[in-house]
Amino acid sequence: SELNFGHNNVNIGLNISSFATFLRKENIKYHLDYYEKFVIVVIEGNNLQIIPFDWFNNTSGDYGYVWPATARLDETKSKLYCQGMRMSDFVIDLNNPAGKPF
Question: Residues 6, 7, 10, CA angle at the centre, nearest 5°?
């Protein structure tokens, strides 16, 4: 929770060249009664990038019933190829993560 959105330089102590996942960040606030709190986390060496997953958070459908589960990072295209629980596969353009996935 102490890390900021965007790029964070963190010595994570792991030998990871690139990794992407979805996490919940409890201190995300929206002006909605009903929302999710997912972020996309991309680790590349000591660079840890935290991106709000606004498309999903604001339109998640059935709270607690569907959620993003896995992500495969394509560094050359800056894309995440993703699967979720009880939702269709989707692709996220990391250059425009707030945009609707395709």
Answer: 135
